Amino acid sequence: MTELAILWSILLAQVMLALAMAFALYRIVKGPHAQDRVLGLDTLYINAMLMLVAFGIRTANTVYFETALIIALLGFVSSIAFAKFLMRGEIIE
Protein backbone atom coordinates (compact mmCIF):
# COMPACT_ATOMS: atom_id res chain seq x y z
CA MET A 1 0.00 0.00 0.00
CA THR A 2 2.75 2.50 0.82
CA GLU A 3 4.64 1.79 -2.41
CA LEU A 4 1.48 2.45 -4.39
CA ALA A 5 0.91 5.70 -2.51
CA ILE A 6 4.47 6.82 -3.24
CA LEU A 7 4.10 6.04 -6.95
CA TRP A 8 0.82 7.96 -7.15
CA SER A 9 2.25 10.95 -5.31
CA ILE A 10 5.29 11.04 -7.61
CA LEU A 11 2.96 10.87 -10.61
CA LEU A 12 0.87 13.72 -9.19
CA ALA A 13 4.04 15.75 -8.59
CA GLN A 14 5.09 15.20 -12.20
CA VAL A 15 1.70 16.35 -13.48
CA MET A 16 1.89 19.50 -11.35
CA LEU A 17 5.46 20.17 -12.48
CA ALA A 18 4.36 19.82 -16.11
CA LEU A 19 1.60 22.35 -15.45
CA ALA A 20 4.12 24.72 -13.84
CA MET A 21 6.38 24.29 -16.88
CA ALA A 22 3.49 25.23 -19.15
CA PHE A 23 2.85 28.40 -17.13
CA ALA A 24 6.55 29.29 -17.22
CA LEU A 25 6.60 28.78 -20.98
CA TYR A 26 3.59 31.09 -21.27
CA ARG A 27 5.49 33.72 -19.25
CA ILE A 28 8.50 33.38 -21.56
CA VAL A 29 6.37 33.86 -24.67
CA LYS A 30 4.01 36.58 -23.40
CA GLY A 31 6.27 38.38 -20.90
CA PRO A 32 5.91 42.12 -21.34
CA HIS A 33 9.51 42.81 -20.26
CA ALA A 34 12.83 41.06 -20.63
CA GLN A 35 13.02 40.55 -16.85
CA ASP A 36 9.77 38.58 -16.94
CA ARG A 37 11.20 36.35 -19.65
CA VAL A 38 14.36 35.72 -17.63
CA LEU A 39 12.31 34.80 -14.56
CA GLY A 40 10.17 32.51 -16.71
CA LEU A 41 13.31 30.82 -18.04
CA ASP A 42 14.65 30.39 -14.49
CA THR A 43 11.37 28.83 -13.43
CA LEU A 44 11.38 26.57 -16.47
CA TYR A 45 14.83 25.14 -15.83
CA ILE A 46 14.11 24.64 -12.13
CA ASN A 47 10.90 22.79 -12.97
CA ALA A 48 12.71 20.68 -15.58
CA MET A 49 15.35 19.80 -13.02
CA LEU A 50 12.70 18.79 -10.48
CA MET A 51 10.87 16.77 -13.13
CA LEU A 52 14.05 14.80 -13.80
CA VAL A 53 14.56 14.22 -10.07
CA ALA A 54 10.99 12.94 -9.73
CA PHE A 55 11.47 10.70 -12.76
CA GLY A 56 14.72 9.42 -11.30
CA ILE A 57 12.98 8.55 -8.04
CA ARG A 58 10.20 6.83 -9.94
CA THR A 59 12.53 4.70 -12.06
CA ALA A 60 15.32 4.33 -9.44
CA ASN A 61 17.94 5.33 -12.00
CA THR A 62 20.87 7.57 -11.05
CA VAL A 63 21.42 8.95 -14.56
CA TYR A 64 18.49 11.33 -14.11
CA PHE A 65 19.99 12.78 -10.93
CA GLU A 66 23.25 13.55 -12.71
CA THR A 67 21.36 15.13 -15.59
CA ALA A 68 19.38 17.25 -13.13
CA LEU A 69 22.64 18.44 -11.58
CA ILE A 70 23.98 19.47 -14.99
CA ILE A 71 20.76 21.34 -15.77
CA ALA A 72 21.00 23.15 -12.43
CA LEU A 73 24.58 24.25 -13.08
CA LEU A 74 23.92 25.40 -16.63
CA GLY A 75 20.73 27.17 -15.58
CA PHE A 76 22.54 29.11 -12.88
CA VAL A 77 25.29 30.21 -15.26
CA SER A 78 22.75 31.25 -17.90
CA SER A 79 20.79 33.26 -15.32
CA ILE A 80 23.94 35.15 -14.37
CA ALA A 81 24.74 35.78 -18.04
CA PHE A 82 21.21 37.06 -18.76
CA ALA A 83 21.27 39.32 -15.71
CA LYS A 84 24.65 40.74 -16.69
CA PHE A 85 23.46 41.29 -20.25
CA LEU A 86 20.35 43.12 -19.07
CA MET A 87 22.35 45.30 -16.68
CA ARG A 88 25.26 46.27 -18.94
CA GLY A 89 24.33 45.25 -22.47
CA GLU A 90 27.33 42.93 -22.84
CA ILE A 91 28.33 39.61 -21.31
CA ILE A 92 32.10 39.52 -21.77
CA GLU A 93 33.98 42.63 -20.79
TrEMBL record:
Keyword annotations of the record: Antiport, Cell membrane, Ion transport, Membrane, Transmembrane, Transmembrane helix, Transport
Segments traversing the membrane: 6-26, 38-57, 63-87
InterPro entries the record matches: MrpF/PhaF-like
Membrane topology: Multi-pass membrane protein
GO molecular function: sodium:proton antiporter activity
Main location, first listed in the record: membrane
Cell compartments where the protein resides: Cell membrane
Domain of life according to the entry: Bacteria
GO CC terms in record: plasma membrane
Keyword RNA-binding attached: no
Family: Belongs to the CPA3 antiporters (TC 2.A.63) subunit F family.
Protein name (record): Na(+) H(+) antiporter subunit F
Species: Sinorhizobium sojae CCBAU 05684
